[in-house]
TrEMBL record:
Broad class of where this protein is predominantly found: membrane
Entry-linked PANTHER family: FMN_FAD EXPORTER YEEO-RELATED, MULTIDRUG RESISTANCE PROTEIN NORM-RELATED
Coiled-coil region list: none
Record has Ion transport as a keyword: yes
Organism: Pseudodesulfovibrio alkaliphilus
Compartments, record wording: Cell membrane
TM regions (residue ranges): 12-35, 55-77, 89-113, 133-154, 166-186, 192-220, 241-267, 279-300, 321-340, 360-384, 396-420, 426-446
GO cellular component terms attached to this protein's record: plasma membrane
NCBIfam families the UniProt entry points to: matE
Protein name, entry field: Multidrug-efflux transporter
CDD domains in the record: MATE_like_7
Amino acid sequence: MQFMERWKADNGYRQALVLGLPLVISMISSSIMTFTDRIFLGSYSLEALAASLPASVAAFLFLSFFFGVAEYVGVFVSQYTGATKHERVGAALWQGLWFCVPSGLFLAALWFVAEPLFALADHPPEVRELEVAYFRVLTLGGGPFLVGICLSCFFSGRGMTKPVMVVNMAAVALNIPLDYCLINGIGPFPELGIVGAGIATLVSFTLPAVCFAVMTFTRANEERFRVRSAWRIDRDLFGRFMRFGLPGGVQFFVDMFAITFFVFVVGRIGPVELAATNVAVSIYTLAFMPMIGMHVATSIMVGQAMGRGEPEQAAYATKSVLHIALVYMAPMGVLFVAFPGPFIELFQARGDAARDFAPVLASGTVLMRYLAAFCLLDAIAITYMGGLKGAGDTRFIMLTMAGASLFCMVGPLLVLGHFGSVGIHASWLCLLAYVTALAVTFMTRFRKGPWRTLRLIDE
């Protein structure tokens, strides 16, 4: 009876799924892109597989700050939509676009620091050379990626998530065959290995930016949302966008820094441990990315409810998404523990290189048990974080991320490294402690409710 009531209610299960499922499919599409990258690279060489995780994580570490700010356009769009101030949506969109321009130039300039950056990791020379090459190509795609994310918020913030799904699926449809051809040298394409994987990703980042731009800047959207005429920087609106968006960017950067630090520490343990962690993280990404879609849906539902001045509906929406997240992640955790082999074997190398995969399979089987617990805890953390973000409580999220990363991840791993006690189990236990701290803190903050009094948009 309670299930049916919540299914039919405003901000209940049905509304969460209608809004969130297209975003889930979008996130799965993005995960498939990364997942197939690593499958193709694993088949190409063990060194390419080992190099792909540190390079992609490092590239996304720098991108994460700007991504965290740019995606906050969606919260402003959702709150203006909830408040029926449609004429302000175009102005909110343009503040994000003005932020993306210098951000993309900064990311492209990281090309010149790639070699000294990966020299700090002290990975084997053959792995480090591939890391540098992959990182450089990925950072060139940062600008188009940010523009695509910002423009997609024009649709997702208004609850129109199907166009976002279609465009992201088109990007994947382009990426997978291009990936395969450029890595292995199929047909007229040269064999570029890990550089080919980077080029395929760069092209797939550019396609959504072009598609969303064509779909956004239409005459009809100009008449209702002023997507063309509101192109100037609005000092008051841009200031509020920075006030609430910058903590979101810092929060995302700190989170990615903790994960990057974890990956680099594991890389120092050995190539087998790094490859096994790469496999486990890739499986996690594919399984968990649907929850990122529901996280965005939470922010949209909460943002629209807060725009209407209905904090109780915002809380109701967050709980609805949490129930869906737990129902999805619990069976996934059981599969990871009961049947780890089929997941890991997707990454097995071909030919003579397959002999080197046996220790990766053995180590990865153990890591899948950690992964099961991590996914469940992360589902709780990211759902409540979506609720807090939609309400504008980004400063608290930022401070929590910073404290958890310092005291649960970076600090303990540095101490263990000083005493020579860093191993694969100690590293993953620190990762579990980190996500546990986030889940408990965000849940407590949301239930206490200081976010209910925040005011994000102008009166």
